[in-house]
Amino acid sequence: ITALSGCAQFAIPSLATGTGAAEVRARLGAPSDERTVSGSKTWDYAQGPQGFTTWRLTFDAADRIAKVEQILTERRIGSIEAGKHSKEDVANLLGRPVEMTLFRAKGEEVWTYRFLDVQERKLGDVYFDASSGRAKMTITYPDPAYVNANDF
After folding, report:
1. Which stretches within 73-142 are classed as H helix?
2. Contact partners, residue 143, CB within 8 Å, separation at least 6
3. CA distance to 40, 45, 116, per residue, from 48 (Å)
4. What is the pLDDT of residue 149?
5. Which positions of the chain have pLDDT values less than 70?
6. Any idea what DSSP says for residue 52?
7. Which end of the chain is least crowded, N or C, by CB within 10 Å?
8. How many angstroms separate the CA atoms of 43 and 78, rounded?
9. Which of 56, 51, 10, 13 is CA-nearest to residue 33?
10. Are 11 and 53 in contact (CB under 8 A)?
11. CA atoms of 67 and 53, how far apart (whole Å)
């Protein structure tokens, strides 16, 4: 049995592998995103509009939970390769960004994600070439909304 625990603010309720999709929907409501990743149905549960966690539930062919994972991590953001990953690849890896910004003059689009690095609240930006839709680079940094001005 796989269970999730932690601060209720940042965790999804405990769900065992093998739990059916209908029961998940009854307990958690509609997911924030539904997609197919590597041939499997996945549901993402983003924690609030400005939340720092997105839990992904991956279902098997019998429509039961096969895997539960937190997808907003520095490691996952850092795994995005310039020139290789498309917007679809990034959405499949990280889910929906909290913000999308187009910089027409620079020919760039930036997707911003909020995440927790242990207890530090951070932002991760994925820069895309606006014409090709391919990743150019990623950067992670402390979320300015939570940085103490006295630390500088």
Report:
1. 74-78, 87-94
2. 114, 121, 122, 123
3. 25, 9, 14
4. 58
5. 1-13, 48-49, 149-152
6. S
7. C
8. 22
9. 56
10. yes
11. 16
